[in-house]
């Protein structure tokens, strides 16, 4: 077994599902079809919560609850993963009172664990959604979030470091807002900030280095998807391969100390990895990805996600779960066929959603098919049989 996979997925009071269960026979391709708004993305969002972080929509835990429920929700999956068979679960209990804040809980084999980071010992999850389509033309913050998701899939502690850096920067900004900032406290906060910042930058740099290697290694595969080149755009990430981490920390502390007046005037910290960017290029045309066509950008994004999944498989020995939301709808037939071939070579369990079952005609017989109607998930047998008969 070289692919982590879900054997049974159970949703309780989650999004549009009061109660739903999906049983799967094997790893491989899983196709989920249904009308727009039926709940296809809700289903794979539930799976994304079995990974560290806030899931593919970055929703608050309150937003995940069934509108007609009691405010609680639960997602449970029986999996065959990197440590064998296990049941992973997460959710929240009903509110204890009007003023009580819900707390998300995590379970492995019905035993409580501290966070979803521990789920990464069992499986890794990678996804691609339509919300990522503007990635190359959007702000740098979106590309950093995309990069941090890539890092998190190989380093389950990365999100806690990123959150710690954000807290530390906010603390520094609050100190700088005061009319008489205490140099002692600023020194202490900047000491911590530099330490965390270098750890975040190092994790990003290592992942980008590995992913660049994976992209280069897969250069001859799936020529229908343009070749991509990636690099980190940030002074700290540039220096890290050539200098000790301690030296970079000291440089950043000195920079923060010297920039206090400027940062106080700006109301924010103007230097650091919280402002770094992920540079992505269309290698075949030697142009920034932002200058490529819409179709080329979509294909570049698929190339990146496939390379990332292959990298995870190399690093862990197990292919990750892939969640591909509405990916095939806008691919031409040749790229669609190339995607199916690449997914078969990866050997992962791949959940694909789409409104039109005809888009998956090439993989009928190879994929496990499900149809969604509001609140329900049902196996779909030969979805194109009737339309093929009419065509004949």
Task: Break the fold down into its secondary structure elements and pairings.
Layout: E1 5-14, E2 17-23, E3 29-34, H1 40-48, E4 73-81, E5 84-92, E6 105-108, E7 111-113, E8 125-128, H2 140-154, H3 158-177, H4 183-217, E9 228-233, H5 235-239, H6 245-258, H7 260-266, E10 277-282, E11 287-288, H8 294-316, E12 321-325, H9 333-346, E13 350-354, E14 368-373, E15 376-379, H10 385-391
Structure description:
With 392 residues, the chain is α/β, with parallel strands linked by helices. It has a domain of 182 residues: Glutathione S-transferase Yfyf (Class Pi), Chain A, domain 2. The protein has ten helices and 15 strands. The protein has a six-stranded antiparallel β-sheet, with helices on one face. It has a six-stranded mixed β-sheet with strand order 8-12-13-3-14-15, with helices on both faces. A three-stranded antiparallel β-sheet has the order 9-10-11. Helix 2 crosses helix 4, helix 3 runs antiparallel to helix 4 and helix 4 crosses helix 8.
Binned, the helix content reads 25-40%
Q: How would you describe the shape?
A: globular
CATH superfamily of the domain at 135-316: RecF/RecN/SMC, N-terminal domain
> Strand pairing plus helix content: what structural class?
alpha/beta
What portion of the residues fall into strands of 2 or more residues? 15-25%
What is the makeup of the main sheet? 6 strands, antiparallel
Using the coordinates shown, work out and report the CATH topology of the domain at 135-316: Glutathione S-transferase Yfyf (Class Pi), Chain A, domain 2
Secondary structure tally: strands: 15
Question: Low-confidence runs (pLDDT<50, min 5 residues)?
Answer: 383-392
Give the radius of gyration. 23 Å
Span between termini: 41 Å
Mean pLDDT: 93
CATH class of the domain at 135-316 reads: Mainly Alpha
What series of H and E elements makes up the topology? EEEHEEEEEHHHEHHHEEHEHEEEH
**Total helical elements:** 10
Biggest sheet strand line-up: 2-1-4-5-6-7
CATH architecture label name of the domain at 135-316: Up-down Bundle
């Amino acid at each position: 077994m070289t692919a982590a996979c879900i054997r049974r997925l159970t949703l309780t009071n989650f999004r549009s599902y009061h109660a739903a269960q999906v049983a799967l026979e094997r790893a491989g391709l899983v196709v989920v079809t249904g009308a727009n708004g039926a709940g296809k993305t809700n289903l794979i969002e539930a799976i994304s919560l079995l990974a560290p972080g806030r899931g593919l929509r970055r929703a608050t835990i309150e937003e995940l609850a069934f509108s007609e429920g009691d405010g609680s929700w639960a997602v449970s999956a029986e999996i065959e993963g990197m440590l064998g068979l296990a049941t992973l679960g997460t959710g929240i209990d009903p509110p204890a009172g009007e003023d009580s804040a819900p707390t998300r809980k995590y379970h492995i084999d019905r035993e409580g664990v501290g966070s979803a980071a521990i789920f990464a010992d069992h499986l890794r999850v990678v996804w691609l959604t339509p919300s990522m389509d503007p990635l190359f033309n959007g702000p740098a913050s979106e590309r950093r979030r995309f990069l941090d998701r890539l890092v998190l899939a190989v380093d389950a502690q990365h999100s806690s470091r990123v959150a710690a850096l954000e807290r530390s920067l906010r603390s520094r900004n609050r100190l700088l807002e005061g009319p008489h900032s205490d140099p002692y406290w600023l020194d202490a906060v900047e000491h911590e900030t530099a330490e965390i910042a270098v750890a975040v930058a190092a994790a990003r740099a290592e992942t980008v280095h590995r992913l660049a290697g994976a992209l280069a290694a897969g250069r001859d595969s799936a020529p229908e998807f343009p070749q991509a080149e990636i690099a980190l755009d940030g002074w700290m990430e540039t220096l890290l391969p050539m200098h000790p981490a301690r030296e970079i920390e000291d440089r950043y502390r000195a920079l923060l100390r010297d920039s206090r007046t400027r940062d106080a005037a700006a109301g924010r910290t103007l230097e650091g990895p919280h402002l770094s960017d992920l540079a992505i290029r269309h290698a075949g045309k030697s142009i920034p990805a932002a200058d490529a066509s819409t179709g080329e950008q979509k294909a570049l994004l698929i190339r990146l996600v496939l390379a990332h999944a292959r990298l995870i498989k190399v690093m862990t020995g197990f292919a990750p779960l892939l969640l591909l939301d509405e990916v095939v709808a806008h691919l031409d037939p040749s790229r669609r066929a190339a995607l199916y071939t690449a997914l078969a070579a990866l050997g992962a369990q791949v959940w694909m959603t789409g409104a039109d079952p005809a888009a998956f005609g090439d993989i009928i017989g190879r994929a496990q098919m499900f149809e969604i109607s509001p609140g329900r998930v049902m196996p779909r047998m030969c979805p194109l049989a009737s339309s093929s008969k009419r065509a004949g």
